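Q: Can someone sanity-check these two? First one:
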Amino acid sequence: MSRSPNASINFDNIGRGRVYGAELFLEHKFNNTFRGWVTYTLSRAERRDSGETDYRLFDFDQTHIFNAVQSYLFPENWEVGIRWRFVTGNPQTPFISGVFNSDLDEYTPTPGATNSDRLPLFHQLDLRVDKTWVWDWWRLSAYLSLINTYNRQNTEGLSYNFDFSRREPIQGLPVLPILGVKGEF
């Protein structure tokens, strides 16, 4: 089956991408039971779409990523950990207005420059408690994690009204408890 030379292409793999940056990882073991580390990433992710000459920000570019983790091992194989993360919001292409299409009886969005806006900064605090039981030939661990402990209302996306004149944030998950069990042989 041949395609018309004027047919539009929705997806292709002809574009090019590039990423550059630096990462820093520092870990310190204060003693046999207490340790911590911090990580920082500074990066830039860009894409040149098929048929274009200029690069633009990639959809998942995150300029700054920072993590701080600490854990403490208590007697009888109990461990408590904490993690705080901070991340630059993802780029977004804003809709600057809407034009009414009477044939469809709806508004069609008018996009701004590709990825010219960003979602707000993301940060959250996670806590975790682990208990491990050790036998001769296997181990059993149970854990409870509290994701987004301080219930930060992080913006995960944007929702526009019917004529694209107003937008509202789409919030991520609230506090999320996770209970898990892991066996190792």
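And here is the second, same format, sequence then tokens:
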Amino acid sequence: MSRSNGRKDVRTKKNSIANPVVPYLLPPGWLWARFGDVTINRDGERIPVEKSVRQGRHGIYDYYGASGVIDKIDAYLFDKPLLLIGEDGANLINRSTPVAFIATGKYWVNNHAHVLDSVSVECLQYLEIFVNAVDLRPYITGTAQPKMNQAKMNSMLVALAPEEEQKRIVRKVNELMGLCDELEARQQAKRESRVRLNTAILAPLNNAASLTTEEFAQATTCLADNFDTLYDSIDTVRKLRSTILQLAVQGKLVRRRNENKPENGSRVSDYVRVLNGYAFKSEWFVSYGIRLLRNTNIGHGSIHWREVACINKDRANEFAKFALDDGDIVISLDRPLISTGLKVARISKKDVPSLLLQRVGKVQLKNNELDTDYFFMWLNSPAFVDAIDPGRSNGVPHISSKSIEAIPFAPPLLTEQKRIVAKVNQLLSLCDDLETKLRQAEADSEKLMNAAVKHVLDSVRNVSNTAEEVFA
């Protein structure tokens, strides 16, 4: 095939591979070719435009990068359907989006996507399907920044079908992809419907304190009747966890043996003090030493040390007041998101020795009237998050320990707290089991799908091998 726009059959090229080492045998009429022999490369026409420059050139034309449209621009380089293939980036390995895609209309392409033409749009569509289906790792260089340069791409082996067969394959793939899109849309609609139903059923339970005994009974019955329908996804189980905590702090999970007896106007400060971390100077930081617990180290219920700041042991001894102990409750003083709540966790033995850095608070009990497990549960409940002022103080996106201490807080008697904690632990354990089963079901479904795809591919290859034997 000459490097022109002529419509020659790319399969008639004389220097097609004679005896290649190929992945599998092909049906009669098919042949193996090199990618560079069946395409016209137009990479030389690409022009990258920096983002800062594009901001002043915003327009109506699509601006393509390695994984598709990334911006709009005021001019275009190409005005015909062409095949674009990502040249670099992690997507070449993880395939989170298609590596190859057809660009249409008038558009611009930067230097992160190869630009290919061929004898027809149908041939480009066939090559798009092929590239997105095959393993590209043999043609990729680099690990930190994967790249498929032009030479590597051109050396790719392509299983080339006859022209009419290419068209039939493209039609069939488009038909099947359409069915997949329809199925995905139905699944998404089902998920959204389930989330709406879950929200509607849990709404009265999240405000159970205002319900009558009869209304509360109706709400719990509705939840029980729809349990199997609602809780077949991890997302809805997480919302159930939140409702369990809310019911717990409203005193709705166990039958009360004692009435609450706090004084009128009781607040968090009557039971605990929230100690602020110290603003250790950055010039004190060392590579190894006593770790400093920062707000970035606190997750929702867990501590992680992916980012570590340390000071040496001698200096740490001067700040024993800020030392953390096994079992301590710590709070990130970043303003919480409505969807996730405040980041609260407990220190374990593996987290010490460590010191409290600024913008992190540590809970210190003032008396023996509060169970720490109950208070930790309350901090993770919607009741606590809803009590935090949603505004920002002077534009600063964090909260203060004083604002936490000022929140109204009326716990039941200590014995009641312990009974509530025991019931919550029991229910959350059931949620853990449910999540484990759902994850296993997802894994089993993926394995089943992979096995089905492998079976189809093996069947195709067996047919190809049989055909080759018949026509040998």
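A (reply): Looked at the second one. The chain has three domains: 10-161, 167-260+412-472, 268-411. The CA atoms of residues 79 and 106 lie 4 Å apart.
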